[in-house]
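Input/output pair, single chain:
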Amino acid sequence: MEQTYFRRGFGLKGHIEGALAADYHSRVVDRIRAQGYVLAVGGLTFRLAREFGFCYGVDRAVEYAYETRTKFPERRVFLVGEIIHNPHVNKKLQAMGVEFLHRPDGGEFDFRAVTATDVVILPAFGVTVKDFARLRAIGCVLVDTTCGSVLNVWKRVDSYAKDGFTAVIHGKYHHEETKATASQVTKYPAGRYLVVRDMNEAREVCDYVERAGSGERFLGLFADKLSPGFDPDRDLVHVGVANQTTMLSGESLAIAAEIRRSMASRYGEAALPEHFRTFDTICSATQDRQDAVLKLIAEPLDLMVVIGGYNSSNTTHLAAICQERAPTYHIEDATCIDPATGTIRFRPVGGEAEERRAGWLPPGPVTVGVTAGASTPNNKIGETVERIATTRGVTLEALLE
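Output:
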């Protein structure tokens, strides 16, 4: 009988290394690394964060997707959503013949086109328990690229639900990873979850725990972020905190501390273990990139450029950190920079739409900090550095020979 579930690769790395290098490698990035993460050219000094770009989980997911296309050359290959939140990587997979399955806003993924003879790739964010069951019922081959850090969060919220604790998840409720994490508690009849986006929403939870809120108002505020049948009087008595792996670490820890304080206030410090649990589930790669950018912005910089998908949670959080210390431009890729007009297209921190700005690169000597989200390939970082240099009329070709 044919094996229909794979999580550990196909042993085809040697067959795809050339394609991966051609698609994502950057000589510019290699050169900057070799020079201590600094490149000085034409009055510009580029300082690259020491941790940036593809993390292990993203590397694994992309490699596994390339291996899948190689392993099953004659079969239709589908992908649930996006493999990662980077438009260029997803376009590369489309060019390789991978078909994308989409979820309409507020709806379910449409799996009607999938048959038992097809192959379906599950993304690095994972899929919900329900979607996994739907695909297994079809009988297709499943290639699971779910990140190990995400699996660790799933284990944590599973243990909460199993022990009768409501999982309070610090995350973005519309994000595929958070949807998948929240669904893990639904394996248990009494499993409950609540998603909080930020400290303001966490304080609403704290107020209710401390008997300062109304049930009707609470359910209205969290209408789209609760498990079905959620009853705050019943479901906020025992609480376990977890988080989407790509959130700001400091914010997640602060939220956990605030909820802990409220639970201790309500039930007493001695009884706290019966009512509250927490575990920091920020992934190490996310933490490393946040730590690296904090070190980078501690140096004198004129501006920061953060490269990555606008829908990438870890990238938007890097931009938010940088904005605290220097003018910050979050761009999707090098095409956002127009050397001919000296303009840049970027998504402002906290904004919903791109803006265009002229004169963003000031005259004279300029120090530019550069980093990229965990789903941004090196070639997109290198192309960005080259575009910025071109804005000053400088070419990097001679440096790369």
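Residues 58-147 form a domain with the Rossmann fold fold (CATH 3.40.50.11270). The first strand starts at residue 5 and ends at 6.
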